[in-house]
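Changelog-linked ticket: adenosine-5'-triphosphate example.
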Amino acid sequence: MDHSAIEVRDLSVSYGSTPVLVDVRLTVPVGAGVCVIGENGIGKSTLLRCVASLQRPDAGEIEIFGAPPGSTPEFWRAVVTTVEPPTWYPGLTAREHAELVCRAHGLDPAAAGMDETLDRFGIASHADAIPPSLSSGQKQRLTLALAFLRPSRLLILDEPEQRLDPEGRALVAGLLHDYLADGGTVLMASHDDAFAAAAGTTTVSMADLHTVDAQ
Ligand SMILES: Nc1ncnc2c1ncn2[C@@H]1O[C@H](COP(=O)(O)OP(=O)(O)OP(=O)(O)O)[C@@H](O)[C@H]1O
């Protein structure tokens, strides 16, 4: 049976007595790119955290490729998310983090183009630095480089353009475009309409998600 990449039904989340998401519905077919937009505090990150299984909703159902999120190794093999900031391994350099990601996914770093990826993301000259010593934009570049380095079927990204300079935004938009062209699925939140369009995603307003499916 064919499943959507993401199926969200009647999702509700409150913080204390404040409802943030109320009966949110969202369908993202396999191979589609959806960018959720909306004002600060409207609940985009909350939605992405729930879809990535990093937060348990109060009510509703979520299926990722037909199964509940986060419950199996298959989920984490298929899904890459940058919704939560990464935890860096103490004492490992940026390149060693990239090597770790490759080897954990059964890839030879050279065959996976690890050095080329670090170079494309402009961090080759910082590859021997430990990530905490990088600038906030360089950390974001490394985080995204690691996300693109490993194989996946679904990217869940919270404002990937954040802290990137224009050249970095263009690079990431191009890579997302290629990822979608190769059959991958993208769910992201962004405040940058031009970035979302360049990435090839369809923009969906968070305010409409209680009534509108993104098809
Ligand atoms: N852990 C939490 N505890 C209490 N309130 C929270 C928590 N996380 C988020 N909120 C509140 O929920 C609302 C939605 O937050 P969320 O981060 O999902 O919005 P957002 O649309 O991603 O915002 P932004 O565009 O600023 O990133 C906000 O009012 C926020 O203050």
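Closing comment: Example verified and attached. Residues 166-181 form the longest helix (16 residues). The radius of gyration is 17 Å.
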